[in-house]
Specification:
The complex is a heterodimer of chains A (373) and B (471).
Chain A lengths: L1 H26 L5 E2 L4 E2 L8 H5 L2 H12 L4 H14 L4 E2 L2 E3 L5 E3 L8 H18 L2 E5 L2 H4 L13 H12 L7 H7 L15 H15 L12 E7 L2 H6 L6 E5 L8 E5 L3 E3 L24 E6 L6 E6 L7 H5 L4 E5 L8 H8 L5 E8 H7 L5
Parallel strand pairs in A: 6-14, 12-13, 12-14
Antiparallel strand pairs in A: 1-2, 3-4, 4-5, 7-8, 9-10, 9-11, 11-13
Helix pairs in contact in A: 5-7
Chain B lengths: L5 H17 L4 H17 L3 H21 L4 H35 L14 H17 L8 H9 L1 H4 L7 H9 L5 H34 L7 H32 L17 H7 L2 H12 L9 H18 L4 H27 L2 H20 L3 H11 L10 H20 L3 H11 L3 H28 L11
Classes of the chains: A alpha+beta (373), B mainly alpha (471).
């Protein structure tokens, strides 16, 4: 008799768990978009006879119910928590590093010599044509090495940058690696995001200014102001566990120069900074209104000089620091650009009349640097 | 459909079980048949027809063999049934392999069929063959009810990954079974255990292997190579035995008693013992329907050796259409023959520890043959394992992966032995009120925790944060 009661209890618990989640899952509303994953979730597939027969309907349905499963974000946290209990130091390609740092992993195998060669060839063409400066920023895994877990082995960006330097020549190379390495004990990268901080960008600016032989205007990294203390960046999304939020800072003095900014030839603004992003998850969008294909900046600095920046999102917090030296700054994000790059640039300014800066982090550069014409 | 999915756990299973338990008496088999067809057709709508054809073919052959019993016709009907089954299996599983081999050897360019392998075909053809053979031999009564026979062939719990259930073992239960609450409770716990083995252990340890498998073997240290293949050894065991546990558990919930398929194979001290503990239902199938009919060990040692060779070539090739599987089968045949000749006697006289080490090394090296398809990959990997590629004992990658997975691997190794099971039994038998209370509490909390964790891992498998931009 006692055994029967025990058996009923066991069955009750197991069936209870399965049934409870089934019922709740069936009655809860579908979500359109997941903020944590930053993507549109699968929605209920439409029935058709063909999709039933070839099995795609079932595949889509399965994707749909898995994406929409009740408490999705919580389950993911439970999984991550278990991984941590198992003493894993890497989750979803992110290292759980010392001092609450999350650092993105970049394995050597992901960057073949062929890939490096392909990107370098594209880079050389641009450098030769425009006498451009090249500023490739190492990512945190190569600079914050003393914070990494034991025995990690990441893509050697120092060696990669030495190759770049050799190929494009000393006069085109901005040595941002050296200055970041010197300041590696400061907050030059976000703890929860893959970007560098405004402080990191200040050091990057200093390296650029040195390469440009500019004298004026090194920024004082102590003059930054906090814009939010609640930033949870992309690396936090990848592990989706509670972590200490990050601080975003900016340099108020970059707002001293009056300017007009035009995003994608339509939206006009007069500040580099968009406060509205601070209420969303994507707080880094505060800098230069997140990512745009093309940004034009006109400043009151009437010196007739112009700058083209070909860039990834690392430049978003850096461009405001550069802008004070130019009357016109054009910012191009190749990921969003259709059409030929060189004719486009020469349509704005005559060749030779402008400065050109290619500003990426090493990883984005290797993954994404691509243009036509 | 796979067991370890949101679809199965939160749509199919609840709906099916509710229908099954409210259906009265004979209706239960209709629910089970329809449920199984939906389960199968979910991923393979077209191949469900193939399975039904196979079912009807063997049903008819069984009936005809029964009516012609004792005549020469019965024998020909058996041959016809076996041919149909083996042709189906041969066509869908081995045709491209044979064509590919012919093309490679003779430089011809016969086109491949490139048909997907119907899921579970290796399992259900073996089940139906056991039926017709047993009916022919008079060891099983013919099944006159097509519905009951259909249930036997298509039953979803063991349809896609075994165990291979012989007809005579479930014949009685096809029309007369009762599931009392103790059986249901046992089945539910067994199912959850299997799910946890698959989702928590196999899948996660498998990640380690998939990383190492993709790496360059010529630059791999001894440590990394062993980590990788040990991870695969654990992965395949927990995956396969987890599926069997889930099948046995689901069967028990409905009142079936499926045969056990795994019995802690990695604690074996010889290859002979290993194959008594690994994929037991397949071993017993080959033993009963191939090895013994060939004469087994009754026709002298040389003939026995040949029989072993034949059975293990077939066992190898059953696991997949590829030369590496044949090689894998022959690898075991070699050690089984050696054990029959003298090694068995030697092992009986040395401490059991040596047997364990010998057995594990043979099995683990065997997994290299099983898992890597080309001769060059197998060669490269074995060189790395035994330090012949000159990359030394340790490297950073190996140390990193080892540290990262140490806890998981230790849990895996412990779970592949009967240690936890023995501790539980001890607790149960301790008889003290305290021990019993602890046992009953654990018996409920552990499955509940395993189930919740498994759900988290199943859901997380689709976690796909898209970080940089949004279109």
């Amino acid at each position: 008799m006692k055994e029967k009661v025990e058996a009923w209890l066991t069955v009750g618990i197991i069936c209870g768990i399965l049934l409870a989640f089934t019922v709740v899952d069936l009655i809860k509303e579908d979500r359109f978009f997941s903020e944590t994953e930053n993507r549109i979730l699968a929605s209920r597939p439409k029935y058709s006879k063909e999709s039933l027969l070839d099995g795609t309907l079932m595949e889509k349905y399965e994707e749909y119910i898995t994406d929409q499963f009740v408490g999705r974000d919580k389950w993911i946290s439970i999984k991550t928590g278990t991984d941590m209990l198992l003493q894993k130091k890497e989750i979803n390609g992110v290292y759980l590093a010392k001092n609450d740092y999350l650092i993105e992993q970049h394995l050597p195998a992901d960057f073949s010599p062929e890939l490096v060669e392909k990107r370098l060839a594209l880079l050389e063409r641009l450098v030769d044509r425009f006498d451009a400066k090249v500023m490739l920023v190492p990512t945190a895994d190569n600079i914050l090495t003393d914070k990494l877990p034991a025995y990690t082995e990441d893509f050697d960006q120092k060696a990669f940058l030495d190759t770049v330097r050799e190929r494009i020549g000393e006069e085109h190379y901005v040595d941002v690696y050296r200055v970041l390495w010197e300041h590696r004990n400061e907050d030059i990268y976000y703890r929860t995001d893959h970007h560098w901080t405004t402080r990191g960008a200040c050091y990057g600016y200093a390296a650029w200014a040195e390469a440009m032989e500019l004298e004026e205007g090194a920024y004082n990294t102590d003059e930054t102001a906090v814009v939010t203390n609640e930033f949870l960046g992309t690396l936090h999304s990848k592990i989706n566990m509670p972590v200490k939020p990050d601080t975003i800072e900016y340099l108020p003095m970059t707002e001293d120069v009056p300017k007009k900014i035009v995003y994608d030839m339509t939206v006009k603004k007069d500040s580099f900074y968009e406060k509205s992003y601070l209420d969303t998850k994507n707080k880094y969008g505060f800098f230069l209104d997140d990512n745009h294909a093309f940004v034009e900046i006109k400043t009151n600095c009437k010196n007739g000089k112009s700058l083209f920046v070909i860039k990834d999102s690392y430049a978003n917090c850096t461009v405001p620091l550069l802008a004070m030296h130019y009357e016109k700054v054009y910012v191009i994000d190749l990921r969003f650009m259709n059409g030929k790059l060189i004719p486009f640039m020469e349509g704005y300014e005559k060749k030779g009349d402008m400065d050109v800066l290619i500003l990426y982090n090493c990883v984005h550069f290797l993954e994404e640097f691509q243009y036509y014409g | 459909m796979v067991f370890s999915s949101v679809l199965f756990l939160f749509r199919f299973l609840p709906l099916f079980m509710i229908c099954y338990f409210i259906a009265p008496g004979r209706m239960k088999n209709i629910v089970l048949l329809l449920g199984s067809l939906i389960f199968y057709a979910w991923g393979e709508p077209v191949y469900a027809v193939l399975m039904l054809f196979s079912t009807v073919s063997d049903y008819v052959h069984g009936r005809l063999i029964e009516s012609k019993r004792g005549t020469r016709a019965a024998k020909w009907l058996l041959v016809s049934s076996l041919c149909i089954n083996l042709l189906l299996l041969g066509f869908f599983k081995y045709a491209d392999f044979l064509i590919g081999t012919v093309n490679a050897v003779f430089g011809t360019t016969f086109p491949l069929f490139e048909l997907g392998l119907p899921i579970g075909i290796s399992f259900y053809t073996f089940q139906t063959m056991s039926y017709t053979i047993d009916v022919y031999r008079g060891e099983a009564k013919v099944q006159k009810n097509l519905l009951d026979f259909g249930v036997f062939v298509t039953m979803f719990p063991q349809l896609i990954a075994g165990p291979i259930v012989k007809y005579r073992h479930v014949a009685e239960r096809l029309h007369n079974r009762r599931a009392d609450i103790e059986k249901i409770s046992y089945g539910a716990k067994r199912f959850v255990t299997g799910l946890a083995k698959k989702v928590l252990l196999a899948n996660n340890i498998g990640l380690l292997w998939s990383i190492i498998k993709e790496a360059e073997y010529a630059r791999m240290s001894v440590l990394t190579a062993w980590l990788g293949i040990v991870a695969f050894s654990l992965q395949i065991y927990f995956d396969f035995s987890g599926y069997s546990d889930m099948a046995i558990g689901l069967g028990a919930i409905m009142g079936f008693e499926f045969p056990e398929n795994f019995d802690y194979p990695y604690i074996s001290a010889s290859i002979t013992e290993f194959w008594r503990r690994w994929h037991i239902s397949l071993g017993s199938w080959f033993r009963e329907y191939v090895y013994i009919p060939l004469g087994g060990n009754r026709k002298g040692l040389p003939r026995q050796m040949i029989n072993i060779l034949i059975v293990w070539m077939l066992t190898g090739i059953w696991h997949g259409a590829g030369w590496n599987f044949l090689l894998w089968g022959l690898w075991f045949a070699l050690f089984l023959v050696l054990e029959k000749m003298f090694l068995g006697k030697v092992l009986a006289h040395v401490p059991r520890l040596f047997g364990h080490i010998y057995c594990l090394v043979v099995v683990i090296v065997g997994w290299v043959l099983f898992e890597l398809e080309s001769v060059s990959a197998i060669g490269g990997y074995l060189q790395a394992m035994f330090g012949l590629n000159g990359r030394g004992l340790l490297d950073r990658r190996g140390l990193y992966l080892g540290r990262e997975n140490a806890v998981l691997l230790i849990i895996g190794v412990i779970s592949s032995t009967p240690l936890c099971f023995k501790l539980l039994e001890k607790l149960k038998k301790s008889g003290s009120g305290y021990g019993m209370a602890l046992y009953h509490l654990g018996e409920k909390l552990v499955p509940a925790a395993l189930l919740l964790l498994s759900i988290a891992y199943v859901v997380e498998a689709s976690y796909n944060p898209f970080l940089y931009f949004r279109f």
